[in-house]
Amino acid sequence: MTKIEKPLQPVEIRERRLGSITGYSGTAGDLVARSRDGSLANRERSFQQASMCAGLCATLNLTLIEDAVVINHAPVGCAGDFAQLNRCRRRGQGKRAMEVTNARLLSTALTEHDTIFGGAQKLAETIDQAVARYHPRAIFVTASCASGIVGEDIDSVVTEAEERHAIPVVAIDCVGFRTQVWATGFDMAYDALLRKIVKPAVTKRPEVVNIVCFSGKKAYFSELLEPLGLVANPIVQFLTVAEIETLSEAGATAHMCPTLGTWLGAGLERRFGVPEVKAPPPYGLAGTDHWLRALAALTGRSDRVEAYIAAERAAIAPDLADLRAQLAGRTAFVAAGSAQGHSFMTVLRDLGIDVIGGCALHHDPVLDHGHQEEDTLAHATRDKAEVPYGVCNKQSFELINLVGKLKPDILLIRHPGLVVWGAKLGIPTLYVEDEHAGIGYRGLIRYGRKIADWIANPVLERTLARRSPLPFTPWWLDQSPYQFLES
């Protein structure tokens, strides 16, 4: 029985399901080798500054569904992230030229009294209020550490509410303390959709490709697929419940970030027969070539893909040569989620920039489909396996120590809370907010120009470095950045 078919409820956490880790130091080649031979083990930290919650990742994905409501069954303190989630929703809608609306997020605001006597009645009343206020097509109830500790019976409440209101009401057991790999929250949210929302296909649309992605512009995907006669369907953010119901009609599912969509892609294939593209995302020349060929093979377009690849490579060749001349001799460091960071490393390599180090926020040795074709780290470092690489799960004290020693010409960071540290070191630091702008052949040029501009104007970062002292003492900065990783 395959991982996705196991009758698990809740979803098994990534540490047990995939062997995912949050602590490692070494080289990219060593990490790839250990991931494949079974010798990889997590290294715990004796000290850490920060972390993130799987519940937040689950809530974020579900908040971006257009006509759904998300209820967080938690103390009101967990609602502190609601403003950030609303910003993500509004920003993403703006990217896709949609009507900008506020998130439909509610909290049951559990109190100490509720943790003793139970909060089931409060949850039932909140569901009723959500229906009266928003008339949603579905309601998702996310659990929390507090509701998990007291053993709140959320399933019974949502079952009764579903019968009462005749819409899907789905419980997501995303209790934060269950896992140190917060990407497990993505899996839990997607599993809720696979179990309760996605329906078996009535008709098939073989030209449609589900693109599992964050909130990037649809135009990036369309420019890559339309020449092959394919239609991009970015999922699941900013879709309606009715549109999510039809995901099973697509001809294929592809990933822009396998870390994000591993459970969803495998589930659509094994439960609904939608084949999954098992290739690294289309970043960089070789990556885009490989991805397009794999997609063409699944969708019956192998006869036209080679001409398309040759034409696109020829079209960008002059601009790529200019960028490589501008960026020759430059160095970079990448800090991002695992697969997304590996994709950025691929882009940098094709631009002629030397990637002298990187760190991921966690590492998945394998994905849910179980195949190695989509090993993004092996693909990104295939000709430079000795590059220093770590897994630092947002520990800023490790990042600033490591980057301060390597002194790259540019630092690429995916998560905004870490961006300030590169600037404080005087290093041009690019926050990769528009994470999918670099896909495909044209994306390589788009991102190359942005990186060239960033390196050419380091005035802001150098000014900040002069006027904003670091909070870390020489005692720490002189040590190994992974001093607190246990053996």
TrEMBL record:
Pfam families: Oxidored_nitro (PF00148). Gene3D superfamilies: Nitrogenase molybdenum iron protein domain (3.40.50.1980). It is an enzyme of class 1 (oxidoreductase). Keywords: Oxidoreductase. One of its GO terms (molecular function) is nitrogenase activity. Residues 53-453 form the Nitrogenase/oxidoreductase component domain. Its EC number is 1.18.6.1. InterPro entries: Nase/OxRdtase_comp1 (IPR000510), NifE-like (IPR049939). The keyword Oxidoreductase applies. The keyword Oxidoreductase applies. It comes from the Bacteria. Transmembrane segments: none annotated. PANTHER family: NITROGENASE IRON-MOLYBDENUM COFACTOR BIOSYNTHESIS PROTEIN NIFE. This is Nitrogenase. It comes from Rhodospirillum rubrum (strain ATCC 11170 / ATH 1.1.1 / DSM 467 / LMG 4362 / NCIMB 8255 / S1). The lineage of its organism: Bacteria, Pseudomonadati, Pseudomonadota, Alphaproteobacteria, Rhodospirillales.
